[in-house]
Write a structure and sequence with these properties.
By secondary structure, the protein is an alpha/beta fold. It contains 16 helices and 22 strands. Strands 14-17-18-13-12-19-20 form a 7-stranded mixed sheet, with helices on both faces. The chain is globular. It starts with a strand and ends with a strand. The protein binds nicotinamide-adenine-dinucleotide. Residues 146-150, 155, 173, 175-176, 206-207, 210-211, 214, 225-227, 230, 233-234, 248-251, 282, 382, 384, 410, 450, 454-455 line the site of nicotinamide-adenine-dinucleotide. Nicotinamide-adenine-dinucleotide is lined by residues 146-150, 155, 173, 175-176, 206-207, 210-211, 214, 225-227, 230, 233-234, 248-251, 282, 382, 384, 410, 450, 454-455.
């Protein structure tokens, strides 16, 4: 397991010698000690990334670049067992999710964008006058990717893959809780022959290293996923050097169940929507909006299903519900549970810390509140944990109004058999992704990102390429 910084294809300790500990949230044990980078290390990484732009990476053919990006995905798949294990060890998610969902999706992201490399092109423009006017689509330069701890490798891939495919160089900063898989990606980059400086990996705390990245004049763009308040700080900080930024932030996504839905499917969807990934999913369907006429029956059946979901050892292939990512996250979730109780919501499932028989680990029971009013804290704030707030509505207009009554706009789910209603509501909802009769499905070819305070810019799909390139117009006088 690598624990140093990757700068210019060399593994180095932090210049200060500082390290930070990585904890397994399922056992509370320290599992690694990794370098904690400071500004000297950042300067080194940025200089290496800048030099690489002007070196072989800058002159490499787009097709060859694409081949290298695809190789990152190929090699990741070859090492999938080991990388999945690291992802589960530092994050607490079930090994089945790491091995069969996240790591393959990250590999696919490299495959997808590797294919784009030689298809990113400019245009010729029919301007007035006798000119040849054309555009070049060029890389932005040095891109910093700052990623959170919930899908550490996948959210890194969503940024690193399109950035490299478009010819940028990257400084990747994983969350301090989950640095291990970003370091594994660094190993893979060296292994497949990415030139020095093209991908640099710096582990370190957000408050110091992250902040230094935001302020660094040598960084041209920041691709960030994380908390909305952190995103606002990044936007303010990036203003000083006018860095390009894309922000993928928090959510409080509604899952709307109409009475004409396939209720069994909706119950499954509502459950997966909030409890997949322990609810530490930015697009989690954390607000269940359910029609008043079916609410009692729906909640009863949902609760019966939820009570069968028992947290277990994340390393056990049979486990479907793991440990929250950190002690801080456990405390936050339990605090929100208390606020739900004191503000008058009815707790119908979970609500407490769970013990998997070891007396250790940040496990919490899948939790459902009903009788939630839209003004309650658990209905308004992102909990980022396995807590579902069920809110009733009387008709379609009220469902839409309640769904949109949030500063966030990342995703939404609609459950109905009425095709007209489904599309009508999809257009009315202010969110970047709408799922109809499904939830939490993703594909590298489909864009993902936020409306409102869930951020701006899109990850995945061809649209992400726009955020990793800039357009240059070239005018040629053809007057004879
Ligand atoms: P966070 O904002 O605390 O941390 C995210 C990253 O930013 C980490 O690498 C952290 O070290 C770094 N960071 C922290 N402070 C910084 C600063 N001042 N300057 C620069 N970088 C800094 O978020 P988190 O708690 O790790 O992640 C959870 C959040 O991420 C949730 O709000 C969730 O909704 C959001 N999220 C959004 C998406 C999406 O696509 N929209 C996806 C996953 C997670």
């Amino acid at each position: 397991m690598q624990n140093q910084l990757l700068i210019n294809n060399e593994w180095r300790a932090a210049a200060s010698g500082q390290t930070m500990e990585v904890v397994n949230p399922a056992t509370e044990e320290v599992i690694a000690s990794v370098a904690s980078a400071g500004t000297d290390d950042l300067d080194g990484a940025v200089a290496a990334a800048r030099a690489a732009l002007n070196g072989p990476w800058g002159t490499m053919s787009a097709r060859e670049r694409g081949r290298l990006v695809r190789k990152l995905g190929d090699r990741l798949l070859e090492r999938a067992d080991e990388v999945a294990r690291l992802e589960t060890l530092h994050n607490g998610k079930p090994i089945s999710e790491s091995r069969h969902v996240e790591i393959p999706a990250a590999a696919e992201c490299f495959e997808y964008y590797g294919g784009w490399s030689d298809k990113v092109m400019g245009e010729t423009i029919p301007v007035k006058g006798n000119y040849l006017t054309y555009t070049l689509r060029e890389p932005i330069g040095v891109v910093a990717a700052i990623v959170p701890w919930n899908f550490p490798l996948l959210l890194a891939a969503w940024k690193v893959a399109p950035a490299l495919a478009c010819g940028n160089t990257v400084v990747l900063k994983p969350a301090s809780q989950t640095p291990l898989t970003a370091l594994a990606l660094g190993e893979i980059a060296v292994d497949v022959g990415l030139p020095p400086g093209v991908l640099n990996v710096l582990t370190g705390p957000g408050a110091t290293l992250g902040q230094a990245i935001v302020e660094h004049p040598g960084i041209d763009k920041i691709a960030f996923t994380g908390d909305t308040s952190t995103g606002k700080g990044i936007m303010r900080g990036a203003a000083e050097t006018l860095k390009k930024i894309t922000l993928e932030l928090g959510g409080k996504s509604p899952n709307i169940v109409f009475p004409d839905a396939d209720l069994e499917a909706a119950i499954r969807g509502a459950t997966i929507g909030i409890f997949y990934g322990k609810g530490e999913v930015c697009a989690a369907g954390s607000r269940l909006l359910v029609d008043r006429s079916i609410k009692a029956e729906f909640i009863d059946k949902l609760v019966a299903r939820v009570k069968k979901m028992v947290p277990g050892d994340p390393m056990d292939p049979k486990t479907r519900f793991g440990a929250l990512s950190s002690k801080k996250q456990l405390e936050t979730v339990l605090r929100y549970v208390e606020s739900g109780k004191t503000e008058g919501a009815t707790l119908v499932a979970g609500g407490a810390r769970a013990d998997i028989g070891t007396g250790k680990g940040y496990f919490v029971q899948p939790t459902v509140f009903t009788d939630v009013r839209p003004d309650m804290t658990i209905s308004r704030e992102e909990i980022f944990g396995p807590v579902l707030a069920a809110i009733e509505f009387a008709d379609i207009d009220e469902a839409i109004a309640r769904a949109n009554d949030t500063p966030y706009g990342l995703a939404a789910g609609i459950w109905t058999r009425d095709i007209k209603k489904a599309h009508y509501v999809a257009r009315k909802l202010q969110a970047g992704t709408i799922w109809i009769n499904t939830y939490n499905v993703y594909d590298t070819a489909a864009p993902f990102g936020g409306y409102k305070q869930s951020g701006f810019g899109r990850e995945m799909s061809a649209h992400a390429l726009e955020h990793y390139t800039q357009i240059k117009s070239v005018w040629v006088d053809l007057n004879m």
